[in-house]
Amino acid sequence: MYYSGWSSQSEMAQHYRQGWSGTTDGNHYANGHTYYGTKLDVGVGPGGPLFFTHYSFMGFDPHSLHDRFTKSYFDNNRNIALINRAYSIANPKHFAGYGPNAWGLTASDGPHGYVPHAPDERNDRGTLTPTGALASFPYTPEASMAAFKHYYRDLGDQMWDIYGPRDAMNQGANWISPIYMGLNQAPIAVMIENYRTGLVWNRFMSNPEIGDMLKKLDQVTTK
C-alpha cells in the first residue's frame, strides 16, 4: 500500500504532486534535482511547504525511515529545510523581510487567506510563517535558533503576544496575522522537544506495531 498508494507512480498521483509546485520536479515522488546546491531525493518541486517535514514526523522519527527513494528521510527533510532557507536568502521575487534569519515558507494564514506558501514561483507570496523555521529545529538547529531570535527579539513587539507567535507576517503588505493557529503552534512545541530530548519520537517509536511496519517496509525496499 505504501508504494501503490502514497508513492504511487500512477498518472493521477503524478498530477497530484505536480499540482503542489506547478512543475514536473518530483511528480514521480522521487525528485533527484539540486536546488541552491542541495540535492533533493524526495519532494514536490524544490520541497514544497515545510509542513511536509513536520506533521508526518512529529511522532514518527524520520531517522528510522528509508525506502526505495531515499536512504534517510531525516536527511531528506533537512535538505528541504535548507533549500527553503536558501530560497529565502536568494529571495528571487524580492519580497521585504526575507533573509538568513527570516525564512520558513509553509502553509499558513496570509493577507488573502490560507495559502500553502512554498519556495517556488507559484506559491511564494511574500508571507513568512514562524512555524516553518521553528518546527525545523531537529533538522537545522542553528538556523532555526537564529530565526527564533529574529522573530522574538527583532519583531516580537509585532509578532508575539499571549499565545506566542502569531501565525504569519508579510512585511511587504504591512500585514501581521491576527490569529494564532494551533495547527502551526503544535509542531513548534513538539519538534523543539524532539530536538531537545527526542521524547515524542521515542514514545511513538516504542509502539510495537511501528517496529513491525518498518521491518515489512524494509523487506520490499529494494524490490
The main sheet orders its strands as 1-2
Helix amount, in percent?
40-55%
* Count of DSSP H/I helices: 9
**Approximately how much beta-strand content do the residues carry?**
5-15%
How far do the termini sit from each other? Answer: 14 Å
Mean pLDDT: 96
**Series of secondary-structure elements, N-terminal to C-terminal:** HHEEHEEHHHEEEEHHH
Q: Which parts are unreliable, with pLDDT below 50 for 5 consecutive residues or more? A: none
Return the structural class: mainly alpha
Radius of gyration: 17 Å
- Kindly state the number of beta strands: 8
What is the approximate shape? globular
- Biggest beta sheet attributes: 2 strands, antiparallel
Provide key terms for this protein:
two-stranded antiparallel ribbon, two-stranded antiparallel sheet, mainly alpha, 7% strand, globular, 9 helices, 8 strands, 223 residues
